[in-house]
Amino acid sequence: MYFERLMQPTPVHRPELAPFPAADARPEPGERFKFLVCVDGSPQSTAALRFAAMRAHKVGGLLALMHVVEPVEFGEWMSIADTMEMEQREEAELLLHDMACQVNRLTGLIPELQIRRGQIGEEILSAIQEDGDIHALVVGAAPPSVRRGKLISWLAGQLAGELEIPLVVVPGNLTDRQIDLLA
After folding, report:
1. In Å, what is the CA distance from 167 to each residue of 16, 94, 138, 151, 159?
2. What pLDDT is attached to residue 164?
3. What angle (nearest 5°) sits at the alpha carbon of residue 52, between those of residues 49 and 56?
4. Mean pLDDT of the chain
5. Neighbour count for residue 126 (Cβ, 10 Å)
6. I want to staple 35 with a disulfide (CB 3.0 to 4.6 A). Which of 52, 74, 96, 148 is the partner?
7. What is the rounded distance in angstroms from the CA atom of residue 35 to the CA atom of residue 55?
8. What is the pTM of this model?
9. Coil, strand, or helix at residue 160?
């Protein structure tokens, strides 16, 4: 009898877990997930954009595209700096509109567009804090052979404790098919 009691499994208290949502789960009415994608026209930012656009489309979410222009410093030559900043802004607008058209053709979504001037990491944090509705930050990672790693290194080092939303890093060398399957 003693031996039989030892062989009986000991009941373990396990708190109830909420069921895992289905892959095609949609948010509640009025609740829309927003994905922020940092774009610069590179292949890795294009991969990140495709992933975020497909994911937003699948979950009935929103998409925001952001391009950060680093400030130009020319000191005494302010007229040159002003001209360069105006050209940078025009290039950023063309880039964002081109990428927004790609998203619209792919998913039918019309993304929000943001151009910010400053240090990229600081501008990302500011955009997330100011918006309040961003649920994930999506960035692209360059393959090791071309990696500059500036943004990813900064995000990993500086944002580890500050970022309160998921950071999704999409490898820039994925094919469209791979991205579509993952999203």
Report:
1. 28, 26, 6, 12, 10
2. 83
3. 135
4. 81
5. 13
6. 52
7. 9
8. 0.76
9. coil
